[in-house]
Amino acid sequence: MDVQKLQPTAVVKVNNDLLFVADLQTKAILQIADEKNITATGYELCGNLLCSISIPEMRGCFGLAYRMNSIIMSDHSAGILRIELSSNDVSIILGTETENCKRPHGIATIGNDLVYSDIVKRKLYRVQSYADETISNLSEIVSMAGTGENGNEDGIGRECQFSQPTGMCSEGNTLFVIDSGAKSIRIVTSLSALQKYLSGLSKLYKAFSVHSGILEKGHSNDIEKSISSLKDIEEFLEKSLSEAKSLLDLKINCLQGPHGVPANKTMKSVGMLREMLMSMSDQINSINPDY
Predict the structure, then answer these.
(1) Is the torsion defined by CA of 230, 235, 236, 240 positive or negative?
(2) Which Gene3D superfamilies does this entry report, sorted A to Z (predicted)?
(3) Distance CA 257, CA 16 (A)
(4) pLDDT of 235-287, one tens digit each?
(5) Cβ contacts of residue 42 below 8 Å, gap of 6+?
(6) Strand partners, 228
(7) Which ranges of the chain would DSSP assign to H, the alpha helix?
(8) Quick one: average pLDDT of 58-70?
């Protein structure tokens, strides 16, 4: 095989010494052993081709993932394919004729789930608890991130926007997605909700100068600023409640904490604090407007 003519389009690392590479020129998945040679200048990395698995269906493979002794590949034309390494059998597990799979590009695994990007739909999709050779139940495929509209907006789950989500990889439960249209790398992680919550909590602390010793210089205890901060916190809590109810399809009027937002009593407490400060401000102004 003339390695000078290879056209590698995707790669997945199985362990420290083994790679699988999609080659568009030969329409094959190449199994390559990563060898390290010690030279006078340090380590030299060399690839040793172990075998080649022919994939006649390959037209534009730009994503590879490894799962349960199988290679999962995404192809613009064929869809999502599974290559069983023990037998080299190739099967299409999700074709491009389905509603949620028009032009798959990147692919990765999170736990027992598969995640892939679709550059036509401008979304990320998640195949929950994938274990079969085919995805027979399309209800297992859920829209994970993206509105489907062209954009470059951050947000929770299906409220964010991608321009052209292409390559991706995973680290634990965190996805790193290349948005080629926006020329950026996007991070999809459950920690973002925690970050927003802590940001809102910080505003509550600042409103009453809690931990004032670590606040930035110039912070004052102005009552109007505290009232404004509490209004911002109320808006944040209301938005979090609305987003959680929408994403989880909840019909109840209020949440009690476990769904990822503060309990209803917490929201009422913030409102009571704001009303208390507003009443205090009115009384002070009635006594001495210049105070």
Answers:
(1) positive
(2) TolB, C-terminal domain (2.120.10.30)
(3) 42
(4) 887 877 777 666 555 555 555 554 555 667 777 888 888 898 899 888 888 88
(5) none
(6) none
(7) 191-207, 223-247, 264-287
(8) 89
Give Cα 163 to chain centroid, integer Å. Answer: 15
Which burial class, exposed, middle or buried, applies to 27 when counting CB atoms under 10 A from its CB (0-12, 13-18, 19+)? middle
Contact 28, 52 (CB under 8 A): yes
Handedness of CA 22, 96, 113, 154 (dihedral sign): positive
Which residues have a Cβ under 8 Å from the Cβ of 7 and sit 6 or more positions away? 23, 24, 25
Cβ atoms of 206 and 243 closer than 8 Å: no
Structure tokens of 11?
């790669």
Closest-CA residue to 236 (of 259, 280, 266): 266
Concatenated DSSP letters of 164-201: -EEEEEEETTEEEEEETTTTEEEEE-THHHHHHHHHHH
Residue 282 is encoded by which pair of tokens?
């009115």
Say if residues 1 and 32 touch (Cβ distance below 8 Å): no
Condensed to tens digits (0 to 9), the pLDDT of residues 28-50 reads 999 988 777 666 666 666 778 88
Q: Are strands 113-118 and 123-127 parallel, antiparallel or unpaired?
A: antiparallel
Q: How far is CA 16 from CA 13, 45, 169, in A?
A: 7, 12, 16
**Per-residue pLDDT tens over the stretch 65-104:** 998 888 999 999 889 999 998 898 888 888 887 888 899 9
The pLDDT of residue 166 is 94
